[in-house]
Design brief:
With 338 residues, the chain is an alpha/beta fold. It has a domain of 169 residues: NAD(P)-binding Rossmann-like Domain (Rossmann fold, 3-Layer(aba) Sandwich). The protein has twelve helices and 13 strands. The strands form four sheets. A seven-stranded parallel sheet has the order 3-2-1-4-5-7-11, with helices on both faces. The protein has a two-stranded parallel sheet with strand order 6-13. Helix 2 packs parallel to helix 4 and helix 4 packs parallel to helix 6. The longest helix is centred in the N-terminal third of the chain and has 26 residues. The model has no long low-confidence stretch (mean pLDDT 96). The structure holds 2-amino-3-ketobutyric acid (AKB). 2-amino-3-ketobutyric acid binds next to loops.
């Protein structure tokens, strides 16, 4: 008899930390997979942790033989800046790794006649606005607009959204069996830049937000790699975890689409600096724009429209810009470094 559990890939990453803490509070049995041994803080919170690569198909097969996964949170990926330094590796990890997990989740769904819920964090990187003028005029971008990404990471994410839709709605569409419970249940969120009080991301292009804040808390000078007017949507980690858990729990019949934007606030880099200085007035923050990374930020929307998530599964962030800093980031980061 297989034990029922929740699988989290990329468990050591930023979202993994927040999600594992949340699921542990609900006494959920979590299997954590990561390239590196699971962070010691997280180890007591999971049923089992496994060091391994999502490209190692036999290893994944063993996990799917041993456990019956009700939900898979597939968080592992190579982020946008790192992916531009090795696009082929990014493609392997981001696409082939996802395909491995979709195949196994799909096979398990069909074996058990019970859909595995496959939760896939996608990103604002799937958008590609052609010019800064178009970005400034675009307002809140909907899921179906401007999906012409310029980065390998964005292309990988967009393609995997489609792969997930295929596996959940059209897999082997010419075969006889048509039981929807035999197909996996794929659901995806497009995240904005994320900011956590506990961890600093690596390899992303929205990293200037969290980097600026953590550097200020540590008393280290920070050179921000985008212009003061660069604007992106952001969200704090508790809201990111909330959205993942809400989407995973939503009744299937409520979902009118497979991919949903979610967001909280959209500051420019100067506004991020100003609010950081309110908590850390001594912080040394300079703007030293990097032409190429700025170009990526300019191709991502200044804001996204999350009306569908609000309507279909009642998504609402707990933190707006002011509250995110006042009630979550500033106190938690102070406790961490000061
Ligand atoms: C990145 O910058 O690559 C990520 C993202 C926006 O998905 N944080």
């Amino acid at each position: 008899m297989q034990e029922e559990a929740i699988l989290i890939t990329g468990a050591n990453g930023e979202i993994g930390h927040g999600l594992i803490h949340h699921l542990a509070k609900q006494n959920q049995a979590v299997i954590a997979l990561d390239l590196q041994p699971l962070d010691e803080v997280l180890q007591p919170l999971v049923l089992h942790w496994q060091t391994g690569d999502i490209l190692d198909f036999p290893l994944l097969e063993k996990l799917f033989e041993k456990y019956r996964f009700s939900v898979v949170f597939h968080l592992a990926s190579i982020l946008s800046t790192k992916a531009e330094h090795n696009p082929e590796l990014a493609h392997r990890v981001n696409v082939e790794g996802t395909l491995n997990l979709l195949r196994l989740s799909s096979a398990q769904s069909s074996r058990n006649h019970h859909s595995v819920r496959f939760i896939y964090p996608s990103s604002i990187a799937v958008y590609g606005l052609p010019t800064l003028a178009v970005k400034q005029a675009a307002g809140k971008v909907r899921e179906d607009q401007f999906t012409q990404p310029t980065t390998m990471y964005g292309i990988n994410k967009l393609y995997c959204e489609h792969l997930g839709r295929y596996y959940s709605k059209h897999y082997k569409q010419l075969a006889d069996s048509a039981n929807p419970d035999d197909l996996l249940d794929f659901r995806s969120l497009r995240f904005p830049g994320l900011i956590s009080s506990d961890t600093v991301p690596t390899g992303g292009t929205s990293d200037y937000g969290p980097e600026m804040l953590h550097a200020a808390a540590k008393g280290a000078p920070y050179n921000c790699f985008v212009r003061p007017d660069a604007r992106l949507p952001f969200m704090v980690m508790p809201d990111a975890v909330k959205s993942l858990v809400m989407l995973a729990a939503a009744p299937r019949e409520n979902l009118s689409q497979t991919v949903y934007n979610v967001t909280s606030f959209s500051p420019n880099a100067q506004e991020l600096k100003d609010i950081t200085l309110q908590t850390f007035p001594e912080a040394e923050i300079h703007f030293v724009p990097d032409h190429d990374r700025q170009g990526i930020v300019d191709s991502w929307p200044a804001d996204i429209d999350d009306t569908a998530a609000r309507q279909d599964w009642y998504w609402q962030p707990d933190y707006d810009f002011e509250r995110a800093f006042k009630d979550y980031l500033s106190p938690a980061i102070r406790r961490r470094y000061c």
